[in-house]
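Obj.: predict assembly geometry.
Materials: sequence records (below).
Method: joint structure prediction, all chains together.
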Amino acid sequence: MLAKRLIPCLDVRDGKVVKGVQFRNHEIIGDIVPLAQRYAEAGADELVFYDITASSDGRVVDKSWVQRIAEVIDIPFCVAGGIKTVADAGKILEMGADKISVNSPALSRPDLINELNYHFGQQCVVVGIDSFFDVVSGQYQVYQFTGDESRTQKTRWLTRDWVSEVLQRGAGEIVLNCMNQDGVRQGYDIAQLKSIRDLCTVPLIASGGAGAIAHFSDVFTLADVDGALAASVFHKGIIEIAQLKAQLIAAGISIRP
Amino acid sequence: MQLVIVDTGCANISSVYFAFKRLGVDASISRDGKVIKAADKVLLPGVGTAHNAMAKLQQAELIDTLQQLQQPLLGICLGMQMLTAHSMEGDVPCLNLIPSEVLPMQSAGLRLPHMGWNTLHSISEHPLMHGFSVIDYVYFVHSFAVAPDAYSLAQCHYGNDFAAVIGKDNVAGAQFHPERSGKTGARLLQNFLEWQL
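Observations (raw structure tokens):
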């Protein structure tokens, strides 16, 4: 039976792993390669690396760390951040990444999704979506350039509409980051994930809000997501992956031991 | 031992190269027919679409070379699909080393692509499957598959059964990604290195 995936997310800035709260105040967690290796050995099913500076300050970022990860890691990993063209994506895939994830550049130029699908196949193309619940309008809205607080902006897209758009353009997987929940460890945004699940015909990964083991079992059982992404609970040692997996298995959730 | 990874120009070549390096084997990556013919073992990687991948093999004039190999040949993911007679992905003839056909997955309503870790069943006694059991998980990413037939060495279930590993004579292929399947995947690659015809 296909297992639900547990995915530690490593936010990368200048070759170091960092983590902020609600996308701000980033603190350095450690070096990428040993952290990646530690997670793979601890039982992570997949890793995601977000180069969070890349899209927002418009420069070409040194991605040589991708190859260093590919050399030591024997589980799949995805690289996100600053991928604006087919050539950018091709380089990262050649260095050994299994998937590439696009977010802000896809909002700026949605054809990028079609182009990546055509050149690398649907299975390589992940679309990350930063979704914020606007209390005034009562709507979930898509945000762009969230790696840099000073440039973060609301887009014209409602989250549901953008999900439909990226599916139609050939996305192979969606990572839905619920910004209101990010880094505060109060649980995944089950209501939003459930509503997106209904229209998402490809794998859906929950992101933002994991703080306790119960949050993972909730998001798998209540929102039927394919994977759950988390950062701070793993980096800070609040949850050990082995213990998390054992409890999810005991709860009857399909998990790779 | 000389292992050659066929340079298909697709994306997972370095992952496959590093996976063998972790097993202590420094593979060559080549699209030179002479180098491939002279290898002890040949690996055919592949990510992308069958149509593009077959076109690349044709451009590099490698179709005959691969069809005439006598030494062990292992295809991975799309590389496995290219070993068959035909793929419905782009309706393209393949290498026809194993007379199976690649069809769109019949997932009985389950989401596609089939992406993630899944278990194997109906595991054969083939040397490539040595040490595998039904509790082992391997990593899949695909939307097309080979239906179980006489050449299936192991199957996987996702809505319906499909062939996870296929083999005939000196040729075999894995639909999953052994280079990304942890210790279980490494076992398949090690079995391939040890495979004596």
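Conclusions so far: The interface with chain A takes residues 11-15, 18-19, 21-22, 47-49, 110-119, 135, 137, 139, 141-143, 157-158, 177, 179-183, 185-186 of chain B (CB under 8 Å).
To do: check interface contacts against the pulldown list.
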